[in-house]
Amino acid sequence: MSVQLSKEGLLKAYRKMRLIREFEERLHTEFATGEISGFVHLYSGEEAIAVGFCEHLNDKDRIASTHRGHGHCIAKGVDIMSMMAEIYGKKTGACGGKGGSMHIADIDVGMLGANGIVGAGPPLACGAGLASKLRKDGSIALVFFGDGAANQGTNFESMNLAVTWNLPVVFVLENNGYAESTSPKFTARIGTENIADRARGFGMPAMTVDGNDFFAVYEAAGEAIDRTRKGGGPSFVECKTLRYFGHFEGDAQTYRPKDEVRISRANNDPLKRFSATVTSTGMIENTELEAIDKDVLAQVEKSVQAAKAAPEPDLEALLTDVYVSY
Asked: β-pairing, 206-210 with 235-240?
């Protein structure tokens, strides 16, 4: 463990990662009941990335997300009660029940919103970065996007714009290998082993790290964010990881090896790796982590029950939030 965090910081990071994991695992179960409408894309397996980066951010910093945004929301501080209600389409949801799983946002904590359009996040982050630069408040913008979005023209244009205007933007590529359903063995879809190589072509610092190692992510995130916050311009970090569920709930996943997820859960799970590291140093006891596990399960259960009991949006609200009034 090359990065030293306080005991309090370690426990906070573990709690967020565990909360993301249990939130998603519970959604996997709840979606199967048919009570949740629309599409759901789960973040399980990628927890170290969202938390590793967001632990360096504050409420003034803005993040843009993807269709797989629950983990980003939780890591940035969005309340899970409002998140679960939103996913159930209820009035008490973060967006009044109008956005659902793929469009959760909370501007108060700097969460610009998840997005169902592949590659839509980078341009939004550039806009937020430009606003930060004009305000001169020391804030930055950060965008999470996937390896599929890395092939979108919006991403290339955004990287070029960020470098040209020296914007305080950090590009975080969550490379889970499949884009949507294309096996990594078909390297022709990328043309390079590390997508971070592309970012260097635009003249920005870029690195590739193990996305299942919280400490490696946290260290890389700290370096990139610090450079950007000090006026060093945009940075790019590629985090290689693996999602534990399909591209969406209901995905048959015929494109991936049969035992891939089972083996990864057993040997490369980011939460297990984190636990093994912090307990082996003697900084944290297993009982402390187990207490967090129990508390998190209770939180998730409470959010589900509250969401199911919450009222539906009022009919009068159907046409609100459509146009902005100035």
From this structure: parallel
Q: Give the HSE-up count for residue 230: Cα atoms under 13 Å, Cβ half-sphere.
A: 7
Task: Give me the DSSP letters along 56-76.
Answer: T--TTSEEE--SS-HHHHHHH
> For residues 267 and 261, what is the distance between their CA atoms, to the nearest angstrom?
10
Whole-angstrom Cα distance, residue 236 to residue 53? 12
CATH of domain 7-317: 3.40.50.970
Residue 223: CB partners within 8 Å, gap ≥ 6? 235
Dihedral sign for Cα atoms in the order 163, 112, 31, 81: positive
Identity of the residue numbered 50: A
Alpha carbon of residue 5 to chain centroid: 21
For residue 323, give the DSSP letter: S
Residue 261 CA to its chain's centroid (Å): 19
How many degrees, rounded to 5, is the angle at CA 101 between CA 121 and CA 262?
A: 95
Write phi, then psi, for 206 (nearest 5 degrees): -145, 145
Per-residue pLDDT of the chain in tens (326 residues, 90 and over written 9): 556 799 999 999 999 999 999 999 999 999 999 999 999 999 999 999 999 999 999 999 999 999 999 999 999 999 999 999 999 999 999 999 999 999 999 999 999 999 889 999 999 999 999 999 999 999 999 999 999 899 899 999 999 999 999 999 999 999 998 888 887 665 556 777 898 999 999 999 999 999 999 999 999 999 999 999 999 999 999 999 999 998 989 888 888 898 999 999 999 999 999 999 999 999 999 999 999 999 999 999 999 999 999 999 999 988 888 887 77
For the chain, the domains span 7-317
**Which tokens go with 16?**
């967020």
State the distance between the two ends of the chain, measured CA to CA, in whole angstroms: 51
Q: What is the pTM of this model?
A: 0.95
Closest to 292 in 3D by CA, of 21, 75, 53 = 21
CB atoms within 10 A of CB 298: 11
